[in-house]
Amino acid sequence: MTTVGAILALTTLARNARGQSREGQDREAIAILGTGNLGSAMGKLWSKNGHPIIYGSRTPGDARVQRIVEETGPQASAMSNAQATASHANMVLFALRPEAVPALVPTLGGLDGKVIMDPMNALQMVDGYPQPSPDVQTSVAEQLQALLPNAKVVKAFNTPSVRNIVDPNRLDGPFSIPLAGADAGAKARVAELVSELGLEPLDTGPLIASRYLEGMMRLSFGYLLYSEGKSFEFYLRPVRQ
After folding, report:
1. Which of 25, 29, 111, 194 is deepest in the core (most CB within 10 A)?
2. Residues 142-155: pLDDT tens digits?
3. Global pTM?
């Protein structure tokens, strides 16, 4: 599919998803590995749209994790990371620190064929500005795909602030959630989850594009530091042909 075709396809998905009622819908379950700011925020947002949420955690019985489950809603639960990935959820969000992933993946089960959403970024600070991590020669997403060769990794949600995902009305207009991945069907499914939140998905191409998406996050974070608190989000507007 051409770039223009991909943009049109994802735009159509976004419009269709916005037109669906939240009531009376059988929404697919989503497993979320990690109960930090991003994981818990995404779980609560998707739960409001009717998705059962399965949190994966090293300590699922911890009071903090159980509080997140309660705040997420009656269709939410928490279990070990391995149990969450082996559950009936075919969409999995890796809301983790990337350095924890190589040791964690061998302990997980049931990921073959599943759509893996990767919002992770790796960086190091040099002279007060974010730089690529020396531990990641390609991108976090490509390394994750190498660790999970039979899963469908899609880079997504790595560029924006969690605060702006939760409240996109803080911005003067729409902003983009760029996607990258090898499987067009997987990207289309992630695009539906993006558009449910009132955000605009944009297919940027194969998984190698995630190298640039991770660089976009370093740029926006660097600007936040450089400008002493000012920030921006990316809005990638297609050019008319």
Report:
1. 194
2. 999 999 999 999 99
3. 0.89
